[in-house]
Each structure stands twice: as structure tokens, then as C-alpha cells.
Amino acid sequence: MPLKINLKSVIMYAVYTAAMVLMNKAIDGVPLSVGLCFAMLLCGTNIIATPALYVAASAVHLNWIMTLLSLFEGGFLCAVTFLYRRTHRKIKFEGIAYITIALSLYIPFAPWKGVSALEIIENEYALKGIAAAATIVFSFFCFKTVYAVMYRVYRCRLREDELVCCAVVYAAIGTGLYNLTGGFVYTAFAAGLIVFCVRLARSPAALIAALVAALPPAVVSLNPMPLTVYLSGAVLALLFSNAGRIFPSIITLAAATVYLYFTGGFDCSAGLIVFRSVLLIIFMTLPAIPPASFFTKLKNLLLVKEVLPDTAVERNRRRTGEKLYRISEVFREIECAFNALDEDVNEGGARARMLSDLRDKCCKNCSRAKKCAGTNVYTGFRKLIDTGCVKGKVNLIDLPSEVTLNCAKPADLLALLNSVIAEYRRYMTEAENAKSGRILLADQARGIAEVMKACAVELSKSYSEYSALEEQIKVKLSSSGVSCPELYIGGDDMEICAVICGKINLKTVTDIISDCTNRKYVLKDRLNYDGEKSCLIFCAPPALDAAFGVAFAVKNGEKVSGDTHSVIRINEHSFLMALSDGMGSGEYAKKVSATAISLIEAFYRAEMPEGTVLKTINKLLSFNRDERFTCIDIAAVNLNTGVADFVKIGSPAGVIVREGEIKVLESQSLPLGILDNLRPNVCSEQLKSGDIVVFMSDGITSAFPSYSDLYEFLQGLNALNPQNLADKILAGALARSGQVVSDDMTVLCTRLFAK
What we know:
This protein is of the alpha+beta class. Helices cover 57% and strands 14% of the residues. The protein is built from 27 helices and 14 strands. Strands 5-14-13-10-11 form a 5-stranded antiparallel β-sheet. It is elongated. The chain starts with 6 loop residues before the first helix and ends with a strand.
């Protein structure tokens, strides 16, 4: 690898040099750093800078023989690496032989005499042989560590063997730091490192980091006490990790101060005590500075979340969205095709054909045909045809003067024309029915296209922006003793799916999710995978809920009411209330109103456009054979915002009862099924908790002398319960009609309240 001078390379080689210096001080006189040098060369670092820095780092031994040995070791490894790179080969297991050769001069010439732990071995060459063998083994750990740091960190999650290698290398570096700076500085550094790991992991994994940090002092002193102390400090920091970012530092600072006091860390001059205290505080303060978001991002980078499953899900969602979008385009093209075929009937052409038929069948064999050709009798024919098209049939009094003065067979003419008009009317009826059918199908195609397009857009959305929040919830659940290996937040309403293992404390899970998201959540559904795992689905409940009441009376002499009502949930965040008053009473009126309500429910549940819903229902009801119609009151209420969309078609006035005040909702349109061109009254109102929406059929309103009397009666009522209010309104209408029900009476009340 050529030497590139940039910030990244400078930092890399600076860390490499510092690590070698500390490794050389781990066991002064043992070249542990040669393993790191060889590992760096194997991983592709610069062939000149790497051994040169290794030789420079050997100066910490303060021995010229060790420097010369380092020069030989670095030069030999540099030459071997150069030959392999020139021949484009990789060093494999033969690397053990090469590092053995590099250390061959160490055994006979190194001035190292061993350490106290190896006093049982008196032969210094045997001691140096053991040191060389340990260095060769250590080089394996160095290679795994360097490879993991250079090529795997931030790209994939490190394996267990790589983590063990990193721990062994840290133990060597930490031992060198302990020997070089002393026990106090290392303890302060290790305490800060423990706080950093606690804030990063926020799980028992920080305890493992504490044990690794305790290895250098435990090895140097040959005493297990540091393992216990460091582990206890990590436990205390973990206990306070959720209290805020400063508390783990404070607790660890107190524990470190007590430990250092009893181990003689403050047995020095006053000035040095102050210096050491400041140094300890600095090491404790540094991990508390970064915000929680920094540690979350760093943890996500280190863990390297598996993206293939999420990518597969996203691809499937996008494919489904694209298919729905293409299908919506098909229905849009169907709409355009029906609209393109929807041409007005050519009445002028039809009447011209009628005139031609009259001339062929009536005048062709007539003896006066030639004489009539010179008169204006055919102008009279046209007038007679126009009259017949308007009236549907003609007779003698409809004959114009042009016909009576010139035509010799007026009776035959009338009979033939009536026959032609009958055919014309059948043709026009069929043409109008075909046109109505095309319009109906075009509207349906447009509605389906819009619904599918909305679904396609929803499926194509990506919700990766919640990854940090997902991790935060998982960490809090884990710290509360809840095992949650998987958690996903999706949708505009931030629906949460969490896989929980073991026994579930639903209140604890719900409270943690609500605290992390700053909004209330409730359990929506639960799926059991097996005896140990369950998937809990949480959603944010709407701010409002509704209760409804209905009261009705059937017209005297009838068995069923012609009025139909409905209150249904469209989805988790909105509901629909509707009242349909079929014109007339009895079974057929009931059928008409029930049909309208069923259609409204189905269309609104499918979330089809409101205009398509009303036009379709109006068109279907216009096919009614008995020409009966229905009046409709509709309210679609959003329970999150309280906004209600009202649609009134030919219905009596509705009201909103709010704190003793009355707001009137009026309608000036004709009922459904009368005209093809429907113009409903549509308005939006902002509702709030305590408001009551009241729909009434005309049987109720007609019982009162006037609307003023009705509104005055409603203002006098003080009913918070919607059922009680409906009962009172019906009772008031019956009292004013003398208990005579001359038309079906229905009252539908819905009250909103905060949850």
C-alpha cells in the first residue's frame, strides 16, 4: 500500500506507534510489538513506514541491542512482505515460520533476563525462548485484531473470536500503559473507559469491558482484587445509566476515589494530590460530554444491523406498491374509455330518420306524392314529429295546417308516426340507460383507481428514520428486564411491533414505549409465536372516542320503520354515523334506506372518494322501479383532530349540541335518486369533547310546529348521555303529535369525549 498523507493515515500510524510503545513496556525487553508490526504488513500497510515506526518504537527499551534486534526483525519482515507483494501472493501459514526467523536472533543476543513470575526457570535462553514463543502466539491475536479493525469494524458485526483477540491485545497495551504511567493514571483512564462502555452498551456487555480493563492491573500485581473492584464499579454505573448522562460518571468517580484512597493513590504531596484529583475528574467528565444520540449512532455503527431482511421487505413493499399503481392506471384508463364512449344521443339525426320513414312508408305509394312534393307538407311532418317526441304520442288535434291542407291520409300518417315514436322512445331509453351505466362504471373505475393509488403510495414509503427510536426503546426494555430482540416502527401513525421473550408485563412495556415516544400507546394486537415468544402490536389511541344512542318509533299501521341508521368505525382513527330516511314507510322504504346505508358503509370502509360514493349511490337509487327516494345524513369524524365532515342530502336540519348552544346543519339538496346531477350540502366542523351530533328524520321535525320550536326544545335539554338525549327528543316529538306516529321517527345522537 503506498503511503498516503491524510488525516486518516496520520491517525492510523500514530495509534499504531503508540500501541507498539505500550506493548514494548508491557514486559520490558520482550518484543511483543513485532506481532503488531507483522500484522500491519499482512493487512496491507506501507512497506517502509510500518517497519520504520516499529524500529523507532523500540527506543522505549533504552537499549541499543534491542534497537538493533528490532532493526533486523523489521527489515526481515519488510523484505518478505516485499517479495510476496511483487509476486502477487499472500502470506498464509508460512507466516509463522517468517516471524520465527525474525525472532531467531532475539534468543541468543537479547539482554532480557526474565521476570519475577518466571524465577523457577533459571536458564535465560529458555526464558527468552518462552518469550519468543509467546510473541509468536501473540502475533496471531494481533493479526486478527488489526484485520477486524481495518476491514470489519463499521462493515459487519465482529465475531466472538475477533472480540477475544481485541481483548488480548488491549490487555497487552493496557499493561504497558500501567507500567509506563503508574497505577493511578491507569485506574483513572480505566474508570473513564468503563463509563464510556456503560453509556455505549447500557447492558451487561459493559461488565465484560470492565473485566478486560481490569486485566492489566490484575496481571501486573498478580492480584484478583482489581477484577472485583472494576466489575463493581461497572455494576454501579449500569444501575444509574438511566438517570442521566452525568450520573454514571459521578458514581464511578466516587468508587474510583475510594479505591485509589485505600490503595495509596493519594499518598503523596498536596500539589500532586490536587493534580491527580483534577486528572481523575477529567477522565470521568469526558464520557459524560457526548449526548445519548452520539452513543446510539456509534452503537448502530458497531453492531452493523443486518440490512438484507429489511431490504427484502422494502423491495416486496415497493413491488406491491408498483403493481397497485399500475393496476390503478388500468382502472383510470377504463374510466377514460367509458368517458370517451359517452357521446350524447343525436336527436336531430333520429328525427331525420323518422321523417325518412314516414315518407317511405306513407307517401311513397300515395297518388298525391308528386303534388305534395311541391307543397310545404313535409314542414308539417317535421312539426308533427317534434310534437310527438315531446308528448310521446300524437292525435288529430296535433296536426299542423301544412298537413291538414295537403295530406289525403292523415289517419294513416298518425298511426305510422305513433309507431315510429314508440320505437324512438325505446331507442332513447336504451341509449340513456347505456350512458348511465357507462357513467356509473367510469365513476367506480375512478374510485378504485384512487384507492389503489393511495395504497401504492403508502406501501412505497420508507420508515427507516425511526431506527434510533427503535434502539432506544429496546435498550430501555432491556434495562427493565424485558427481553426484546426485535422491534419495528412503521407507518405514518408510528405503529410499533415488538417481539417479547418470556413472561410479559404489559403495563411495563406500554409505559416504556409511551415514555420513549412521548405519546400514549395501547396494545392493538398480540400474536403468539411459541411458548416463549410473542409479537405485541401497539398503536397510539385517538385523542377522542364516541358514544351513541338511538331512539325510534314506527309509523302507525306499519311493522317496520323506513328509517335506517348506522354508526361504524372506518379505521382506528375515524368513525362514520349515518341516518337514511326512505321516502314513505313500511318494508319497501326500509329496503331503500337500508340499501343506501349498506352502500355508504361499504364505500367509506374502502376509503373511496366521497364524490364517487354519493354519485354511485344516487345512480343506483335512480334505477328504483317505484321512483322512491331517500334522504341521507352523513358525518365522518376524525377522532385524532375532532374534524367532522358532514354531508346532507335532502334531509331535515341536524344539530350540534355544545354546552347548551345549538349549531344548525341544514340541507337544501333534493333526496338521493331523483336527479342524476347530485349537489349535496357538504361542510366541515371542528368538534371537541362534550359535543353531541344529532340527526333526525322528518318524522321528528314535522312533529314540531316550526324549526324554531324544535331548536328551543333542544336548548332546554340537559342530557350528557346520548341515549338519554335521543329518548328525550323522541318523547318530545310524540308529546307534540299526541302520541300519533304519522311518519317514521328516528333520532341518532353521538357524543364525543376525551379518552
